[in-house]
Design brief:
The structure holds two protein chains of two kinds.
Chain A (H helix, E strand, L loop, with lengths): L3 H15 L5 E11 L7 E13 L3 E11 L4 E8 L8 E26 L3 E20 L8 E2 L6 E17 L4 E9 L17 E11 L6
Antiparallel strand pairs in A: 1-2, 1-10, 2-3, 3-5, 4-5, 4-7, 5-6, 6-8, 8-9, 9-10
Chain B lengths: L1 H20 L1 E3 L5 E2 L2 E5 L8 E6 L2 E4 L4 E3 L9 E6 L5 E9 L9 E9 L4 H5 L5 E4 L4 E5 L6 E12 L10 E9 L4 E10 L5 E2 L1
Parallel strand pairs in B: 7-15
Antiparallel strand pairs in B: 1-6, 2-3, 4-5, 4-14, 7-8, 8-9, 9-11, 10-12, 11-12, 12-13, 13-14
Chain lengths: 217, 199
């Protein structure tokens, strides 16, 4: 709930801008990898961007992005028993999946445009992210055995900063775009970070800019 | 003039309070998904022991060291009793904060050879012992009526002198049966600086 409060406040703050009904929506899909390399993470992204302020070469953009690992990571943990009559160790397999949801507020500047069809922009953004790693172990006798340094399910919320570039090209109606961005690891308290490093995601996304209302220039 | 003295006294007092209140927490508690309210079994120096006592969770107090006059709290101590002629006794004590739980300590009393040393302690690493009441016993809250048997596995048992760059570590799992209590799913993971080892 505490995480939702600043989000609600931010949306409230943005309402006057939203009511001016800018004219584009930018849905996208893509792929991301962890540049920090501490966490074997790759993810597919789906998101939506919406410019709330639109000047000639500047846009303020809000966005929402969901990400999930496309496949399970698997491995084994070792469990020990203090019981003298039992084997000292057994191994148990685990499956690990990761998910995240982020809200962003960004500033985007047009850098170059040519032939009235192509444009390259740079953007910086800040946001709130909630990410989760879900670990499921195979059944084992947890009354008699205890896993050493187990891979554990994990939830974090935090703020992050990001930056990237977008290339867009006009097609018949709207624009096709490609964008690459990098996000900092979330700023969170570090209690569990010795178990999981927080990822720094490089994302490459492609999408389509839908124009739903003509602008008067 | 009096005002200047008062201001100086205030600053001295404020600095003293800051130093007295400087304390550092060395405990990391990461909850085990398979055992609610217990820490995971680890060997990373988390400085915590936790277990169930008759099904209720119990954990040691945080290890907190104070700077200068700041109070220190310890989760564990290891000491040796060498009063007997034919053997020594290794005493491992785990402490709760005394307010959060019904119980405030669990101890493992282990009979060891005469002249028990760090080297002998290190030989415990990787060993699983049945605590049968003869070679040792568990005791709750220092109550002589609450001695029990059980078993313990020492995953890490490494003690080295304080001037070494290596870190002394102690981790493992245990279970015990006492007259009125059953201790289950015990797991511990500690570093062993000089402040907790007394032999």
């Amino acid at each position: 709930m505490n995480t939702l409060k600043p989000i609600s406040l931010a949306l409230l703050f943005l309402l006057p801008f939203l009511s001016r009904s800018q004219n584009t929506l930018e849905p996208y899909v893509g792929y991301g990898i962890d540049l920090a390399g501490k966490l074997p993470l790759s993810q597919v992204n789906i998101g939506l961007q919406y410019p709330v302020i639109h000047k000639s070469a500047y846009q303020m953009v809000i966005g929402v992005r969901g990400s999930a690992s496309p496949y399970k990571r698997t491995g084994t943990d070792v469990a020990y028993s203090a019981g003298p009559g039992l084997p000292l160790t057994i191994t148990t397999s685990y499956e690990k999946r990761s998910y995240s949801v982020a809200l962003t507020l960004g500033n985007r500047w047009r850098i170059i445009s040519w032939a009235d069809k192509n444009m390259i922009s740079l953007f910086v953004n800040a946001g709130l992210i909630h990410y989760r790693i879900r670990v499921k172990h195979d059944d084992f006798d947890s009354d008699k055995y205890t896993i050493l340094n187990p891979h554990i399910s994990f939830k974090k919320q935090g703020t992050f900063l990001g930056a990237g570039t977008q290339y867009r090209r006009r097609i018949n109606v709207g624009y096709l775009f490609f964008q690459a961005d990098i996000s900092s690891p979330p700023i969170t308290e570090s209690k569990n970070n010795r178990y999981y490093a927080t990822p720094a995601i490089l994302a490459i996304n492609t999408g389509y800019i839908v124009e739903f209302k003509k602008r008067n220039r | 003039m009096k005002m200047i003295i008062l201001v100086r006294c205030f600053f001295v007092l404020a600095i003293a309070i800051v130093f007295v209140s400087c304390r550092k927490n060395h405990t990391v508690f990461v909850e085990d998904n398979d055992a609610k309210n217990l820490s995971v079994f680890s060997d990373r120096g988390n400085n915590v022991m936790s277990c169930y006592i008759n099904g209720s969770p119990f954990r040691t107090q945080d290890r907190i060291t104070g700077i200068l006059f700041g109070r220190s709290d310890y989760d564990i101590n290891l000491r040796k009793n060498n009063l007997a002629t034919d053997n020594d006794t290794l005493i491992v004590s785990w402490f709760a904060d005394g307010q959060s739980y019904e119980h405030y300590s669990i101890e493992l009393i282990l009979s060891v050879k005469k002249g028990f040393s760090y080297t002998d302690f290190n030989l415990l690493e990787g060993k699983r012992l049945a605590i049968d009441g003869v070679n040792g016993y568990f005791v709750l809250d220092h109550k002589s009526g609450e001695k029990g048997t059980g078993s313990i596995y020492f995953h890490r048992a490494f003690l080295i002198s304080n001037d070494s760059t290596e870190i002394s570590r102690f981790s493992g799992i245990f279970e015990a049966m006492l007259p009125s209590y059953r201790i289950t799913k015990g797991r511990f993971d500690h570093t062993l600086p000089g402040g907790v080892v007394f032999f």
